[in-house]
Amino acid sequence: MDHFTRKDGVLCAEGVALTEIAEAVGTPFYVYAAATLRRHYRVFAEGFAGLGGSAGAPLTAFSVKALSNVAVLTLLAKEGAGADIVSGGELARALAAGILGERIVFSGVGKTREEMAAALDAEIHQFNVESEAELRALSEVAAARGVEAPVALRVNPDVDAGTHDRISTGRKDDKFGIPWDRAEEVFALARDLPGIAALGVDVHIGSQITSLTPFEAAARRAAEMVTRLRALGHRIERLDLGGGLGIPYGDGVTPPEPAAYVETIRRVTDPLDVQLIFEPGRMIAGNAGLMVSRLLYTKHQSARSFAIFDAGMNDLMRPALYGARHTLLPVTEREGEAAPYDIVGPVCESTDLFDKDVSLADPRPGDLYAFKTAGAYGAVQASQYNTRPLIPEVLVDGERWAVIRRRPSYEEILALEDVPDWIG
Ligand SMILES: *Cc1c(COP(=O)(O)O)cnc(C)c1O
Fold it and tell me: Residue 101 domain-assigned?
């Protein structure tokens, strides 16, 4: 589901023609539809409303790393979203967006002591702790401040999410979580450590998961763990099931409907009386964004034809990073004959290749195209490689639109650098 449709042949974001935005901000740029962000958040959060019995209402904590612009976070916060963060920087973003500490969970394998201290000061809902060493560090930081850190231990359920190898996190040889067979021992340690209140179990098995089977398997294992830990006398009140629900990328794979996901989780967790926590990222933001780019040149050499765009792998890294594919749409359709092109950017790397053999109808330099499904893990992964400034982000809401991150100037980029006197 998205809100990018044609009006008079021109692709629009909600009520705004992409040609109008391109004219005003230049290309390339990201554009997000507020209606899609709101709709996806509501479908998810409303599906789980009412679950959890006496243990507290479910918390839908948007995975900030998927799309971290403060305007987007503010929009989601107004819908009631919490935040799942993985760094001190993301904590600063969530707080700047008005998300209360009590709706923030802190994930990630490598939290520093400084980040832990900042999160304790913000009185966050929960630390998802991923190792014994991290647990000891958090204990020291919390005890030194005279507070208790609310903790869920992220356990590795050894479930293969069946997704791309590079975005799978729940197999026993992935770096994430505490090994299943050591969980009881680490919970026992948590009980003895000062400054730690171990209240929950957390699992997150990967991203872009397109089958319910691994979700159900992981939830069942996590539920088993809750029951087992309670039998050992632990006060387990929360179950965090992470994120990972896949979305359609135009590759013919149909991921489960959110309602089916909700039903699967409900069936497994209903008897538990725990507060449920979810960390969806991609399913909320992915289809809410496009990257719009201008065709610079076409060239034909050897047996191939190339369409060279003004956006590169530094602007949208998913194809280079995990072989991901983004459907390419002409902003204004042409009638002419279609031929296959390799879609490339201007960056000086062979991996600056978005897709191969894409059928384009009569492409001409200057034409605008949109890379679909670029809202999640798009702008957030961008770099300034080749000293290409970070591209703007635009938010559309009905007929209104605004630049929510502007393009930096070369002066601003160079201002961070210094030439020491001793270079002479
Ligand atoms: C990345 C991540 C998420 C979000 O994953 P999506 O596939 O975008 O839903 C949630 N939780 C953790 C711990 C993550 O690392």
Answer: yes
12 is catalytic: no
279 CA: nearest ligand 1 atom = 10
165 and 299 inside one domain: no
CA–centroid distance, 84 to ligand 1, in Å, is: 8
- pLDDT at 314 exceeding the cut of 80: yes
Mean pLDDT score of the chain, rounded to an integer?
95
Per DSSP, the three-state class of 340 is strand
Q: Which residues contact 294 (CB under 8 A, 6 or more apart)?
A: 22, 27, 28, 309, 310, 366, 367, 368, 369
319 C-beta closer than 6 A to ligand 1: no
Measured from the CB, is residue 170 less than 6 Å from ligand 1?
no
Q: Is the pLDDT of residue 1 over 80?
A: no
Containing structural domain, residue 335: 4-32+286-414
Write the pLDDT tens digit of every residue in 101-124. Answer: 999 999 999 999 999 999 999 999
Q: What is the DSSP letter of 273?
A: -
Q: Does any ligand 1 atom lie closer than 6 A to the CB of residue 84? A: yes
Among 133, 231, 303, 348, the one annotated catalytic: 348
Mutate which of 204, 276, 322, 380 for ligand 1? The one with the most ligand atoms within 8 Å of its CB, which is: 204
Give the C-alpha separation, 51 to 195, whole Å: 30
- Helix residue ranges per DSSP H, 168-310: 183-192, 212-231, 258-269, 282-285
Q: How far is the CA of 161 from the centre of ligand 1 (A)?
A: 13
The residue written with tokens 């990222």 in the block is 281
Q: Are residues 230 and 169 in the same domain?
A: yes
3-state secondary structure 57-74: CCEEEEEHHHCCCHHHHH
| CB of 255 closer than 6 angstroms to any ligand 1 atom | no
My answer on whether 261 and 293 are in the same domain is no
Q: Which of 269, 284, 299 is the last residue of a domain?
A: 284
pLDDT higher than 90, residue 17: yes
Calculate how far, in angstroms, residue 62's C-alpha sits from the geometric centre of ligand 1: 9
pLDDT digits 0-9 by tens, 27-58: 999 999 999 999 999 999 999 988 877 888 99
Residues 162-192: pLDDT tens digits?
Answer: 877 777 777 777 778 899 999 999 999 999 9
pLDDT one-digit tens code per residue, 363-412:
999 999 999 999 999 999 999 999 999 999 999 999 999 999 999 999 99
User: Which of 44, 60, 63, 90 has the most ligand 1 atoms within 8 A of CB, as the residue to mutate?
Assistant: 63
